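Reagents: none. Just compute today. Transcriptional repressor NrdR.
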Amino acid sequence: MFGNLNDNALFSIFNRGHATMHCPFCGKYDTKVTDSRLVAEGDQVRRRRQCNDCGERFTTYETAELVMPRVIKGDGSRETFDERKLRAGMLRALEKRPVSAESIEAAVERIRQRLRARGERELEALEIGEEVMRSLKRLDQVAYIRFASVYRRFQDLDEFRAEIDRLAQEPSFSPDDADKH
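Predicted 3D structure written out:
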């Protein structure tokens, strides 16, 4: 992690138990934070730093590294959660539908947050599919039916009709309502 640093260099990096950022200008590990602010709607911390050796100032951004649960597929195999697959599935269902890219990205992020909030190390792929269905139902009902037809493997028109009838019985949502649920 720290390359070929000797014990004295490591001691200065971890001075008083805290790691110190190295200066990108002179490479010394003697820097201090001069200002910290929340940015990106509170998801990041922006820090202004100054090198105590050369005096140069620089900015760093800090974000939490949150590990997504592993996915247990239908055949029992396990794989790393892939946000690209989640987004691609939603985009296929939403193709040529009047839903903004911002709404789609917000829905993807809400799904990720809900999955992470479960606090589980592994999740069944079916649970992820159900989260996608809930989000699509709120974003666009046609996209929801498209996704449901593949996800639930509809075999005939009766299954489509039954799902459309169920959907028609539920109160409708606008994309703005998705933030409230």
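Helices lie at 7-13, 83-94, 101-117, 125-139, 141-151, 157-169.
Action item: order primers for follow-up constructs.
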